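2024-03-11 09:14:02 DEBUG pipeline.ingest accepted 1 chain
2024-03-11 09:14:02 DEBUG pipeline.ingest length=343
2024-03-11 09:14:03 DEBUG pipeline.predict start
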Amino acid sequence: MAKKTITFDDIAQYTGFSKTTISRYFNRPDSLTKKNRKKIADALVELDYHENKVARILANGRTEFIGIIVPNLSLHYYSSMLDAILSTYERFGYKFIVFSGNDQEEMERQYMKELFAYQIEGLIVMSHTIPSKELASYDIPIVTIEREDLYTNSVNTDNYLGGVQATRILYEADCDIYIHVNSSLSETMPSYGRIRGFSDTCAELSLEHQIFSRELGSSYEQMEDSIHEFFNTVDTLYPSRRKGIFMPNDTYANIFCNLLFRKYRTFPEEYCVVGFDNSPVSRNSMIPISTIGQQIDLIAASAVEILDDQIKQRKAGTADKNQGLIHKVIPPVPVVRETTKKR
């Protein structure tokens, strides 16, 4: 025989509460006492209640969906961050709809329309194409990660400190020339702090240094071509000198190290390499890569926590439009491995 569907009426009769109270348990649990929440929760177990999510969405318009837009999944940083965000389900209960923008502005705007059609309750943006001022104009809670954030709440790594730490690791390895390669970044980008941290530390320590600024690409093939060109340039310009290379992320650092192995059949003493992120590729590379570890799990949890607080305030009608923006900065952790051995 078909199993009887348990309704709010059934739960109300079993607990002695009104249907309104039962509804508040599902939609505004914080409005009930801990004792009453437990009584209802125990009743749900006893009655073997299975929530009809579709009916609940239709009834109150709340989907518990959060949208995520990433620039690409070619960089290991973004796949690691996405995995960490998805892992917050157990703590916060949100489901996620993910789009990869591939640096195409109009495509990302189309993705926005798709997400709004799913009645998402919040949005996490890691891509760089749509300005934060435009994002802030959307009537929805938004948190950005590692991108321009003048008009949005955000969670970022302390990129300046990371640049300082990377340069110090290379300095301790006693290099002759210090080199950083990065994309042409606006100063409003958090990752521009890596360039400033590198430059300031080299100036402070009176180190000979150079910054290579170039477009590094978004697909893995483009990245390989760009890093190969950079490698050939550096290898030609500084023969017989110990070169300290600060790469902007671990994916690029891994590509660079692979090029070293292809040419020299080993990791040559003339090179030291530091990446950024502490993504799995830095640990699992042919030779483990020194890196500046972003606390990815903490960044992801902080972003969802800020978003969750905004969503709850909006539902409770307590959101303050005059409240200042939240810009949370997470300190990085240097990780020294085999690519920066002292000579």
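2024-03-11 09:14:41 DEBUG pipeline.report The mean pLDDT is 90.
2024-03-11 09:14:41 DEBUG pipeline.predict end
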